[in-house]
Amino acid sequence: MTLYGDKTPPADDRPTVRVMPVSWPGDEPEPAPPVAPPTGRSRWSRGRLLLAGGVTAAVLAAVAGAGAYAYAGDVPRGTTVLGAEVGGRSRADAARELRAELDRRAAELNAPVQIRLGARTTTVKPADVGLTVDVDASVAAAERAQAHAVDRLVGSRTVPPVVTVDAARLDAALRKGLGSQGRKMTMPAITFAGTTPKVVHPKPSLSLEPERSAQAVREGWLTGKPVEVPLIEISPATDAAAVDKLVAELARPAVAAPVTLRTDKGSLSIPPAAIAKSLRFTADKTGKLTPKVDVKRLRDALGDRLETIETEPVDARMTLTGGKPTVVPGRDGLQVDSAALAKDLLAVLPKADGREVAAKVKPVQPELSTAKLTGLGIKERVSTFTTRFPGGLSSPRSQNIVNVAKHVDGTVVLPGETFSLNEHTGERGTDSGYQEAPVIVDGKLVKGVGGGVSQFTTTLFNASYYAGLQDVQHKPHSFYFERYPAVIESTIFWPNLDFKFRNNTKYGLMIDTAYTDSTVTVSIWSTKIYDSVKTEYGPRRDITDPKTVYLEPGPGCIATAGSRGFAQDAFRVITKDGKVVKREKFSWRYAPEPRFICAPEPKPAT
């Protein structure tokens, strides 16, 4: 060992490293220790300290660089989505990289997807059901991927993409491939045949549940395997045992004996047959069966028996007096409280004894009161239309026109309401006063009850048309008849072919009808809101000649002269305050009406 004593030690030729303080975020620097005065020996110690400090600084700098590298970008390094390297990138760059990967895999992602539905396999095209990768949501999911510092530096992770699909479109596509495997839920039911309860026991459905199907497709689409979509069995809320219990405890006891209804206006007996018609068991969409008493059906079943304790309310109505609309006042009625009667009657029906209900009779206003009708603004005629018919009033066809005109006369249509001619008249049968007359069926005239009502329908359609009211449903005749305006006309047939218009004004309206021995007229009374309503016709086109058809002669054969077919447009032009406010196009194509001859077809000349 060499001692230097007072001699100067050899010069230290190791490089001096200047140490810079490095701190990680959140670390507080510790105060520096006091520096001792230099001594002879401290120069060597200081050299060693400088060396150690240099190494530390290098390490710290390396760690700092590694930290900066690991935490660079919004998405943790080493993160992939569908094989696209999105780690260490900003959100925007990561989204671009993922979109580029999707473009590279476009053929794969657009290929039809095989889907297993029970025993069947079907395919759907991703574009048809909105099946796609949500790029922005997938990048957000990758950004949320948590990793420790070391993992961010050297680790890797795969984040599944966010897949979206239109559940409704997928469900519609899958149902086409479901075939006969699916079955609808058999709803529980209890009905009456006379006074005998009839039961339908429930059965579960086997079908698709849209959200579960969508989840299965989202999860299985990119696996490269057929997607298994489950068939879901759903049982009705009311099972067979509960149905049998309702029959035993309510349905059978309900019709076992009459129920006495007592009021301060008198009493009456409700027979089992009326109870059976009014006791309803209704199943909701879950298959839950709920009993209730339908008081309207009960009233219909009791008929005039209720006249001893009830008085029907009478609606206010309108009539023309001296050429002006006049309100005929309505009248209040007296009726049993329907809500209370339904509840109280249902409570006693299961009982064998004490089958008695006490009910209150209270005043009931008519649906259309005098005050309401007076305030509807029905004050002037806003449109009128007349059509002519042949044969005088003695023909069955003319009598049908008169009959339907009487049914409709004086009808009030409230603001916003839709008038339906079929609903208003009901079925037009012989019991309603209608007779057999020619009607068009399958392209030829045959006898049918109610023939001629279409003439009134056309007249009413034109009156509503020229009043500027909204056309809801109408259908022109198959053939053109010169007694009607082309295109702007309508036929009708019970029950499927109807005529409807909507009162799209803020005023009420009244339909007034009148007839002579050769005409029928319909007028609409309300408050005039338009300057004019006119029709502009386009030219007739595609004109076709009729053919001649020979029919077997006899009472059922109706000969016709035939008519040409053509297509045409008509435009309803409505003006208000001097300006056209609406221009509506109506179009129709008439078939040529054959020339029907009631005779054997002539043999060709030889």
TrEMBL record:
InterPro entries: Glycopeptide_resist_protein, Vancomycin_resist_VanW, YoaR-like_PG-bd. Residues 250-357 form the YoaR-like putative peptidoglycan binding domain. Keywords: Membrane, Transmembrane, Transmembrane helix. Residues 1-41 are annotated as: Disordered. Pfam families: PG_binding_4, VanW. The chain crosses the membrane at residues 49-72. It comes from the Bacteria. This is Vancomycin resistance protein YoaR, contains peptidoglycan-binding and VanW domains. It comes from Micromonospora siamensis.
